[in-house]
Amino acid sequence: MDYDTKKHIIECLDKGIRYDNRSKEEFRDIEIKTGIIETAEGSAYVRCGNTEVIAGVKMSVDKPFPDTPDEGILMVGAELYPLSNPKYEAGPPDNTAIEVARVIDRGIRESKSIDNTKLCISSGEKVWAINVDIAPLNDDGNLIDVGSIAAVAAILNARFPKYENEKVNYKIKTDERIPFSKIPVAVTVLKLGNNYIVDPTELEQEAADSRLTVTSLEDGSLCALQKGGDNPLTTEDIDKMISIAINKASEIRKLIKNS
């Protein structure tokens, strides 16, 4: 981004003005739809402004990791396709896709929302593996937050496939849900000059000095933090950004519960 554009964005924010007339701590309108992919065990579509993301959950029976023989497996992956934004290229996941997946994965994993012991079929031999795939249809900024909403909504929507005689029948979904007891929500706060904003558009995202993604639970406890951007953050910055994120997370959590 050129210097003049970034300067103009920051000068507008200093006056309390964003390009789309939102306040600094206001998300774009969020729409959540679940159960949109028939072949997935769980799925969700989330639109936040012009950013659109689909998440799907596939479940399989796998061997547990040696150090956790009684626990199931959770894995989150992300694919960023050129159809969602020309800046992405076809091929293996790039650094952006890897970061998006890792931040979302860590937030859910560290929240301890899933009781992994309940995913165990036979200790040391067979457990359920939950794979969450995230794919943006259109990227106009804030992929981590929107992807996280989609991932959590898809997990809540998921149903176990029928498992009998040591075989998984994906054509039959049971009424059993994934043991998901909490709702972690990721909110990314950006710092531009002396301003803090949430839910950036792609243009605002490119202008940011630094960012902090905060994943929190309903009681305000923190699950994960991820710093991004080139500029450092002070203790005061971090305190303010965490406070904003927790406050906004409570609003988003209500939307997820009602989806």
In brief:
The protein has 259 residues and is of the alpha+beta class. It has five helices and twelve strands.
**Which CATH-level-2 architecture?**
2-Layer Sandwich
What is the C-alpha radius of gyration, as a whole number of Å?
Answer: 19 Å
CATH superfamily, please? GHMP Kinase, N-terminal domain
Kindly state the percentage of residues in helix.
25-40%
The averaged pLDDT comes out at: 95
Unreliable stretches (pLDDT < 50, length at least 5) are none
How many β strands by DSSP? Answer: 12
Largest sheet: 6 strands, mixed
Assign the CATH topology. Ribosomal Protein S5, domain 2
- Compute the number of helices: 5
Number of domains: 1
Description:
The chain has five helices and twelve strands. The protein has helices spanning 3-14, 95-110, 143-157, 202-207, 235-257; strands at residues 30-34, 42-48, 51-62, 73-78, 120-122, 126-138, 159-164, 167-177, 185-192, 195-198, 210-216, 222-228. The strands form three sheets. Strands 1, 2, 3, 4, 5 and 6 form a six-stranded mixed beta sheet that branches. Strand 5 and strand 6 (126-138) form a beta hairpin. It starts with a helix and ends with a helix. The mean pLDDT is 95.
